[in-house]
Design brief:
- The protein is built from 15 helices and eight strands.
- The protein has about 375 residues and is α/β, with parallel strands linked by helices.
- Helix 6 packs parallel to helix 10.
- The protein starts with 9 loop residues before the first strand and ends with a helix.
- It binds fe (ii) ion.
- Fe (ii) ion binds next to helix 6.
């Protein structure tokens, strides 16, 4: 089997790496970077710090801070106008997954035109597109190293997965100091997102030896660091570990795939405005229990990496320990159910047929070791409520 591996050509990793953003943008050929970010990072001085490094490198930078959480097709028009107004030659996605995903969409639309709905999966997008430099401020989405973006269609509320090399950043900066001020809830949600990426990449039907190594390394690190960083956000060692693991999990799933958890979580996010990582967390233990019978040995490997099973436990015991540990982890990290989150039961049940349809249409469930029928997906939505 031949695997194609794609990742940014340069990744700067470590405390203070953000100060090298100017030199990095110049290295990928940018002279007129546009920082694509949100109003929070534009207002707290973080974007200014980045812009200073561009000025120091002799670049002409501008900032567009109009990105929204769970970016919509409607939110892209103002961004495209900003790209044109600045005549940008590189887009710097700065923030959590939403600003980076927005930068990716703008990079393609600015050069190739059209509407985002034309680019959704299963189409693979080669571009042409502007180069992207990604600077994450959370440790979870992995968007800085993936060839994916997720944009919600404002017309239908569908969270569209869009894939292809056009969305792969040319370069990334992975500086855990940017995550030190994340509140505990965001730390937990993004951390579980990273764990979900690593597990899904490992059990995916598209897994390969390269992605396997990245997955297991990330799972091992997250197993030792996630509870620590949730309990004490100022634990620099744990923050650094989570940041690197999130990037490694991103490389893993970008070169394998995500699976049923992500397929089912996107519709929850789209229809009920649940944060991405939290929607994954609501699903992860139940979807894992459902999937184990089809890939017991693979889930057992995940359990041993996570540290909840011993090396000499048999696969059945280890896989069961994984399900138990994911339940315990979600409990320790105060993950709510859709009901305790405040979602109305009738509204939830009414949306299940649409969520099932959109989950399956995204293609992710087909990568799951146990490929679900629409009835299976509906039953899981029902069960987790
Ligand atoms: Fe994710």
């Amino acid at each position: 089997m031949i695997s194609t591996v794609a990742q940014p050509s340069r990744i700067l990793i470590g405390a203070g790496a953000r100060h090298k953003a100017g030199a990095l943008v110049a290295e990928v050929g940018g002279r007129r970077p546009l920082v694509v970010t949100d109003s929070f990072l534009a207002g707290n001085g973080a974007a200014d710090e980045l812009v200073q490094t561009f000025a120091d490198a002799g670049l002409s930078a501008a900032v567009w801070s109009g990105t929204v959480p769970d970016p919509t097709t409607d939110s892209l028009a103002a961004g495209l106008a900003a790209v044109t107004a600045h005549d940008a030659d590189v887009l710097v996605g700065f923030g959590g997954g939403s600003p980076i995903d927005t930068a990716k969409a703008l990079a393609l639309l600015a050069v190739s035109g059209g509407a985002m709905a034309e680019y959704k999966a299963s189409r693979s997008n080669d571009g042409p597109a502007l180069p992207i430099v990604a600077v994450p401020t959370t440790a979870g989405t992995g968007s800085e190293v993936t060839q994916f973006t997720v944009i919600t269609d404002s017309r239908t509320d569908e969270k569209m997965l869009c894939i292809g090399p056009a969305f792969l950043p040319a370069a990334a900066i992975v500086d855990y100091e940017l995550t030190l001020t994340m509140p505990a809830r965001l730390t937990a949600d993004t951390g579980i997102d990273a764990l979900t990426h690593a597990i899904e990449a490992y059990v995916s039907r598209k897994a390969n030896r390269f992605s396997d190594g990245m997955s297991l390394t990330a799972i091992r690190t997250i197993g030792s660091a996630l509870r620590r960083v949730y309990a004490d956000g100022s634990d620099r060692q744990a923050r650094e570990a989570m940041m690197l693991a999130a990037t490694q999990a991103g490389i893993a799933f970008s070169n394998s795939s995500v699976a049923l958890v992500h397929g089912m979580s996107r519709p929850i996010g789209a229809h009920f405005h649940v944060a991405h990582g939290l929607a994954n967390a609501m699903l992860l233990p139940t979807v894992t229990r459902y999937s184990v019978p089809a890939a017991e040995a693979r889930y057992a490997d995940c359990a041993r990496a996570l540290g909840c099973a011993a090396a000499d436990d048999d696969d059945a015991t280890a896989a069961q320990a994984l399900v138990d540990e994911l339940e315990a982890l979600c409990n320790d990290l105060a993950v709510p159910t859709p009901r305790s989150y405040g979602i109305d039961e009738r509204a939830w049940r009414q949306k299940i047929p649409t969520m099932v349809e959109q989950a399956i249409a995204s293609g992710s469930p087909a990568n799951n070791p146990r490929v679900p029928t629409p009835d299976d997906v509906a039953a899981i939505y029902s069960e987790i409520y």
